[in-house]
Amino acid sequence: MSDYRFVRYETLDEGSIARIYLNRPEARNAQNIGLLRELDEAFQQAEGDERVRVVILGGLGPAFSSGHDLGTAVAREERERYRRPQPAAEGRWHFEWDYYFDNTRRWRDLRKITIAQVQGYCLAAGLMLAWCCDLIVAAQDAVFADVVGTRLGMCGVEYFAHPWEFGPRKAKELLLLGDSITAEEAYQLGMVNRIFPSERLEEETLNLARRIAQLPTMTALLIKQAVNQTLEMQGFYNALKACFNLHQLNHAHWAELTKGQSILGTPEFGVSREWRPILHADKGASGWQPQ
Ligand code: ZN
């Protein structure tokens, strides 16, 4: 155990498995900057511990993660505290690069094998945390969606792995409509590796980790590197970096339109802030509701 405030870090099985829990259940593990900084520390703690072979990343409470924390008092205070000194789009670019892009990339490149353990909502930036792990294990109730297009007027989250994870056509559908997919559908897309009943999720994820921990570390590392480098040769990182810059253009657009008041779309410019349920991407329904 450790003295983190926003995450919980523990090791199991004589230290061969590290388990990190996002620990803001009351906020559905919304990601404030303090949480992301601690998560980076926790991953580096596991990376530096030669006993650790597998790292499990989970979330305490009903949801894995509801995305970036845009609303709580903690988040507002932190945005001021960690604001970059550069003005306007430049400062925003550096801030989002450091906290939303480059740390996610760093976690993907960890030399340990990582497993995301997902239950309940995994929304927007919650996807980034699951996607940067090597395997994704889900509870039957897991729900995956990126709603930042329909709710914030943004072209997806900062780490734009959507086409790689959903496939290109499904990525367009899910981003344009803001609809969700179930654990079963994510499994069919190849995004999720295993699905367990909620009450067995933790135990079965640990058992998978135990199996992987039996593999020689050299073998596990080279399997990870071989797959990740294949994606990189297909353009994975260059595509992600290019899309990060499009994301920054999108913020700059809203900032210019709102004369600096908002870096996200506002109702005045056609982005509704009214509460609406997230619709399931139902194969046989458009989801259209006349006003
Ligand atoms: Zn952003």
Number of helices: 11
| Termini separation | 52 Å
CATH architecture: Alpha-Beta Complex
Approximate shape: globular
How would a crystallographer describe the biggest sheet? 6 strands, mixed
Attached small molecules: zinc ion
Spatial extent as radius of gyration: 19 Å
Q: What structural class do the secondary elements suggest?
A: alpha/beta
CATH topology: 2-enoyl-CoA Hydratase, Chain A, domain 1
Q: Helix and strand succession?
A: EEHEHHEEHEEHHHEHEHHH
Number of domains: 1
Percentage of residues in strands: 5-15%
Mean pLDDT: 97
CATH class: Alpha Beta
Would you count the extended β strands for me?
A: 9
Give a description of the structure.
With 291 residues, the protein is α/β, with parallel strands linked by helices. The chain has one domain: 2-enoyl-CoA Hydratase, Chain A, domain 1. It is built from eleven helices and nine strands. The chain has a six-stranded mixed β-sheet with strand order 1-2-3-4-6-9, sandwiched between helices. It is globular, with a radius of gyration of 19 Å. The mean pLDDT is 97.
Topology of this structure?
Elements lengths: L6 E6 L4 E6 L10 H16 L5 E6 L13 H9 L6 H21 L4 E6 L2 E3 L1 H7 L3 E5 L3 E3 L2 H5 L9 H5 L1 H10 L3 E2 H6 L5 E3 L4 H13 L3 H17 L2 H22 L34
Parallel strand pairs: 2-3, 3-4, 4-6, 5-7, 6-9
Antiparallel strand pairs: 1-2, 7-8
Helix pairs in contact: 1-3, 3-11
Zinc ion binds next to helix 11.
